[in-house]
Amino acid sequence: MSLPIALQLFTLRDAVIEDMRGTLEKVKAMGYDGVEFANLRGNSPESVKQMCREIGLVPISAHVPYHKLILDPEAVFDEYAAVGCKYVAICYLKEEHRMGTEHEPVLIENLKSFGQMAKDRGMTLLYHNHSFEFRETNGKYDLDAMYDAVPAELLASEHDVCWIKASGVDPAEYIRRYAGRCPLVHLKDFSGDIVAERDGLGYPQRADNFEYACVGSGVLDIPSVLCAAKESGTEWLIVEQDRPTEGMTPEECAKQSVEYLRSIKY
Fold first, then answer.
1. Domain span at 67
2. What is the mean pLDDT of residues 16-26?
3. 225: part of which helix (H) or strand (E)?
4. Which residues make Cβ contacts (< 8 Å) with residue 80, sequence separation at least 6?
5. At residue 87, does pLDDT exceed 70?
6. If you average pLDDT over residues 222-249, what whole number do you get?
7. Average pLDDT along the chain
8. CA 237 distance to own-chain centroid
């Protein structure tokens, strides 16, 4: 049995701003089972929950940057709990908040606190990676150090396979490393060279010819990722494309990605 597929609505962010309900209807018509939010765009949690219920989409999760979450974490979890989301994912850390900085002890304690807030509401806190978390310190990636420092019951992973691959790491192997702790996997593809260079701080840098691609049309071995996800207890696959492929609209990209995923047996 294949895993259910959701769309990260950041992919269609302009359309969401103009018409949340109409966009959700289009997402359902494309063949998606659920959605992951980036922002409710002024809609009340109750109205968004009702839209999803009427349209037939599962409001599975939401992305919230760390610098916004720390302002009022209780309000964030309450808002997305009211939508019906099972997960809230920290989607970005500013450089001053990352592992290996003076803020690291605060970050770790905040993650534990946020994880408990989520757990108290029947939700799970996730961390969504980019490539900078694959800086190595004393032989260990910053991302691994973070997961080692916070109990699994308070912080799970939402591996983004694009950024894992762009950091020179095998996405399928990395998903298996976190079997049982990776309920959501972000499917994002790209074309261009695999990144090997690192900047002066040790952060991986993407190649000059890097370009976002529809899932299945880039450099990633998507079938191997899907097999690893299924074997590792992943519950949902989340499609995201930050920018559309040249010559295509965001809607066309989202549709092509889900159609490709529906065509694979794993």
1. 5-262
2. 97
3. helix 222-231
4. 37, 45, 62, 88, 123
5. yes
6. 98
7. 96
8. 9
d(CA 143, CA 178): 11
Beta bridge partners of 245: none
Residue 103 CA to its chain's centroid (Å): 23
- Mean pLDDT in residue range 60-83: 98
Q: Given this model, what pLDDT does residue 202 score? A: 83
pLDDT in tens, 189-201: 999 887 657 888 8
Write out the two tokens for 114: 């946020």
pLDDT at residue 196 in the model: 58
Contacts of 260 (CB under 8 A, 6+ apart): 214, 215, 216, 217, 222
The answer to whether the beta carbons of residues 212 and 189 sit under 8 Å apart is yes
Q: Is the pLDDT of residue 35 over 70?
A: yes
What pairing do the DSSP bridges indicate for beta strands 189-191 and 211-213? antiparallel
What residue ranges in the chain does DSSP mark as E strands? Answer: 5-8, 34-37, 58-64, 87-90, 124-128, 136-137, 140-141, 156-160, 184-187, 189-191, 211-213, 236-239
What pLDDT is recorded for position 1?
78
**For residue 23, what is the domain's CATH number?**
3.20.20.150
Q: Are 195 and 183 in contact (CB under 8 A)?
A: no
Helix (H, G, I), strand (E, B) or coil at 119: helix
CA 201 and chain centroid, separation: 24
- DSSP letters along 92-158, please? ---GGGSTTSTTHHHHHHHHHHHHHHHHHTT-EEEEE--SGGG-EETTEEHHHHHHHHS-TTT-EEE
Domain count, the chain: 1
